What we know:
isomerase, tRNA pseudouridine(38-40) synthase activity, alpha+beta, 270 residues
Amino acid sequence: xxxxxxxxxxxxxxxxxxxxxxxxxxxxxxxxxxxxxxxxxxxxxxxxxxxxxxxxxxxxxxxxxxxxxxxxxxxxxxxxxxxxxxxxxxxxxxxxxxxxxxxxxxxxxxxxxxxxxxxxxxxxxxxxxxxxxxxxxxxxxxxxxxxxxxxxxxxxxxxxxxxxxxxxxxxxxxxxxxxxxxxxxxxxxxxxxxxxxxxxxxxxxxxxxxxxxxxxxxxxxxxxxxxxxxxxxxxxxxxxxxxxxxxxxxxxxxxxxxxxxxxxxxxxxx
Length: 270
């Protein structure tokens, strides 16, 4: 995600609703509307529009996921026409009906004030990257994991991950096309653990650079596989060169897990 900017002052008459959604990103072009294929945003806005007689319902998201990336707890807001009577159940169930058969689901909805913004009010985002670490290819988890046959040492991966915690210049881990003004980000969490055949990489920060999580996962994989020593992560970070880091891990292993707010509109712990 690029740098946060000061939100524009919104008109007071907006009928604004916060939504928490989940989706399987397989086969979609990511969150943002595209002219050459289906996106999550286009599906969401089309379903919302049907609730108000096909009037436009614009959306803002807490984070723009890439093609093939999933979400378990994405947060967005929708601005319905201010003269459209609508309630939380109508939004959740009505949009759920119109979103079929797409793998996009509205989990929760709540009315918010015009000053609340899904993107600019957020104070952190959390992601999980999942690796299936076994010789056999995935069957049930196809399109949800990165399959790595070579055994991975999660202790070595965690040792390397510890060097990335805190504020750093993450140029080596940003996409070449990243448009963020600054490469400096602060990682609050970067945990690597094994759950049977799965290696789970969990991370949390206020915001992330384009491809940052996937590039970190690709580099940690190299260390866990014994192809690079733990100390290599320091050299990669200090190089400030994308070519110094590991490959960009494939999108299907990445899932946006949650978004945090100082005053959580959904009433869950933040």
